[in-house]
Design a protein that fits this description.
- By secondary structure, the protein is α/β, with parallel strands linked by helices.
- About 40% of the residues lie in helices and about 25% in strands.
- A 7-stranded parallel sheet has the order 3-2-4-1-5-6-7, with helices on both faces.
- α3 crosses α4 (about 100-105) and α5 crosses α6.
- Mean pLDDT is about 85; it is low at about 40-45 and about 60-70.
């Protein structure tokens, strides 16, 4: 059974840092396939991933969660069949709907794959501007996450952190909220 973990969040929030840390410390020894969408973003360090024995599948033709939901489901099925990984890590573009990714994963055979972690990384310092400028996309990621990591907390004021936490809990009261300085 393949476990699928999804890491959403906007540019610079810390998704790639988190994924690298998990690969090194938590997923060591697992056969991993990383599916990332680099559209408009700086990609993950392919050299690091190849050295760690991780296969990388890049989708550069647009946001995987918006324009490619059907194709994305097919791509996941192909990865499961041809690569049979222990774990698939999905890092969609920041301006995508997490709900669409979860729908695509939900189309998979439950005997072949299951959803593991659904994590959204939110930059505490950019919360207000992203919620204002990208409202629907930004809040969709918060509303559908099981875990929300509030990053860059070392450079945010206590008041800003309290405001972020309050707004996150309003949108998703059941999510686990974690704070971190990176």
């Amino acid at each position: 059974m393949t476990e699928i973990d999804v890491f959403s969040g906007f540019l610079g929030a810390g998704k790639t840092t988190l994924i690298k840390k998990l690969i090194k410390e938590a997923y060591a020894g697992e056969k991993i396939v990383l599916i990332e969408n680099e559209y408009g973003e700086i990609g993950i360090d392919g050299g690091f991933m190849k050295d760690a024995g991780i296969e990388i599948k890049e989708m550069n033709s647009g946001c995987i969660c918006c324009s490619l939901v059907g194709d994305f489901s097919e791509a996941l099925q192909k990865v499961l069949k041809e690569m049979a990984p222990d774990r698939i890590l999905i890092e969609p573009s920041g301006v995508g709907k997490l709900s669409d990714i979860l729908t695509a994963i939900g189309d998979l055979n439950p005997e072949e794959a299951k959803i593991g972690g659904i994590v959204t990384v939110v930059d505490a310092n950019k919360f207000k501007i992203y919620s204002k400028n990208f409202g629907e996309f930004f809040f969709n990621q918060i509303e559908h996450a099981a875990t929300i990591i509030l990053s860059h907390t070392d450079t945010a004021s206590d008041r800003k952190l309290a405001d972020c936490a309050e707004k996150i809990k309003e949108k998703n009261p059941s999510a686990v909220l974690v704070t971190t300085p990176w």
